[in-house]
UniProtKB/TrEMBL annotation:
Compartments, record wording: Cell membrane
Keyword Amino-acid biosynthesis in record: no
Membrane topology: Multi-pass membrane protein
GO (cellular component) term, any one: plasma membrane
Domain of life (superkingdom): Eukaryota
Zinc as UniProt keyword: no
Main location: membrane
Protein name: Gustatory receptor
GO terms classed as biological process: signal transduction
Keywords: Cell membrane, Membrane, Receptor, Transducer, Transmembrane, Transmembrane helix
Family: Belongs to the insect chemoreceptor superfamily. Gustatory receptor (GR) family.
Biological function: Gustatory receptor which mediates acceptance or avoidance behavior, depending on its substrates.
One Pfam family here: 7tm_7
Naturally occurring in which organism (per UniProt): Hypothenemus hampei
Length: 372
């Protein structure tokens, strides 16, 4: 079971690349230094130059590619650029929210597990390193030259846009790992809260004052968890918005490549498999985020069902029943959900709109492709 403590070894890494402000894990205080602001500003400028050079290189040196394909490829590049740039900017603008987020998570951890100063195993760190190694190996496979005689196009790709793709995919992986980890931790805390309520059912002290205090305590914990989900929803807007959109454009680009341009770069089956694995990384990242958001929503519904079951064991005239009824109404009114600036909800139901939009745009582009 992963908790916020297990993220401690990774926080310096995320702060170093700029996706998290420097956090003092002892008091969960965020102090934005001038050096960090300068570093983020330099990264934003550098990545913007990368993207502009990449788009120009793809337009000039790959002029033989059809216009619809170049448009989809350019949109994918812009969306990845937006994801990285907005994530860097959010780490500076909303740095206080990060401190509030970790404070709330630590308070809930103390309530559920007692003493916070526990041994911090390298659980998430090992997963993170394993994911990065897999990504690095797939990129080496994907960027391998098509033959022993490196072509001119390959050198142009290395100089102009291969490094941009690699860096942006690395940042996307880091952001997705951070988001999924925090979502999983929040889901685990909701699950712990539900188990605590189920334990109250077996105490058989429904008319006693301690039972009422227990319900009030669980209600406060739920309020903190709802605050955490709202903070997550606000802090990771770039991830919730850009990654599903990039998944759409990449799938569309991949299908166009398979049908019309499969021999454009290399005629070997190996390169086609490498292209598939390279894109599959991003698709898997998208689905992991959708599933993690959906798990939290489902856990909140289970919590409400547990409250209803607990009401059946209490006299309707008792004070604990009235308090539990207010708690249940609060859960039903305050629905935990994640959205991308209100454009769409982020849950596993988004899979069908992604597939539907990819199919729709694919058939539309096919019409223009056939005319050309």
């Amino acid at each position: 079971m992963a908790t916020v403590v297990h993220l401690k070894p990774l926080l310096p890494i995320f702060s170093f690349i700029g996706v998290l402000p420097p956090i003092n894990f002892n008091n969960n205080c965020v102090k934005l230094t001038k050096s960090y602001i300068i570093k983020v500003s330099a990264l934003v400028l550098l990545f913007t130059i990368f993207s502009i050079a990449s788009v120009i290189a793809r337009t000039i040196f790959l002029e033989h590619r059809p216009t619809p394909y170049k448009i989809v490829d350019g949109i994918t590049t812009v969306l990845l650029w937006l994801l990285v740039i907005l994530s860097l900017i959010y780490s500076c603008i909303h740095h206080q929210l990060y401190g509030k987020l970790f404070r709330q998570l630590n308070e809930i951890h103390k309530e559920c597990h007692g003493d916070f100063r526990i041994k911090c195993p390298m659980l998430l760190t090992r997963k993170f390193i394993f994911i990065l190694i897999c990504q690095f190996l797939i990129m080496l496979w994907y960027y391998k030259p098509p033959n022993w005689m490196w072509t001119e196009r390959y050198w142009i790709g290395i100089i102009c846009y291969f490094h941009e793709e690699a860096v942006f995919h690395f940042y996307a992986t880091c952001m997705a790992f951070l988001v999924v980890s925090l979502l999983k931790i929040s889901k685990q805390d909701l699950k712990e809260l539900r188990f605590k309520l189920q334990e109250l059912r077996g105490l058989q002290i429904y008319e006693e004052r301690p039972f009422l205090n227990q319900i009030k305590s669980k209600q406060k914990t739920f309020t903190k968890l709802h605050t955490i989900t709202r903070i997550l929803n606000h802090l990771f807007i770039p991830t919730f918005l850009c990654i599903p959109l990039t998944c759409r454009t990449w799938l569309l680009q991949f299908f166009l490549y398979i049908i019309h341009m499969i021999n454009d770069y290399s005629t070997t089956v190996e390169y086609q498999l490498a292209s598939f694995c390279f894109g599959l990384m991003f698709v898997m990242v998208t689905f992991l985020i959708l599933l993690a958001c959906d798990e939290i929503m489902q856990e909140s519904k289970k919590l409400m069902i547990t409250c209803y079951d607990l009401q059946d064991c209490i006299s309707i005239y008792s004070e604990p029943y009235q308090e539990l009824q207010r708690f249940t109404e609060k859960i039903s009114k305050i629905k935990i959900k994640f959205s991308a600036l209100g454009f769409f909800e982020v849950n596993k139901g988004l899979v069908f709109p992604i597939v539907g939009s990819v199919a729709t745009y694919f058939f539309v582009i096919e019409q223009f492709w056939n005319r050309n």
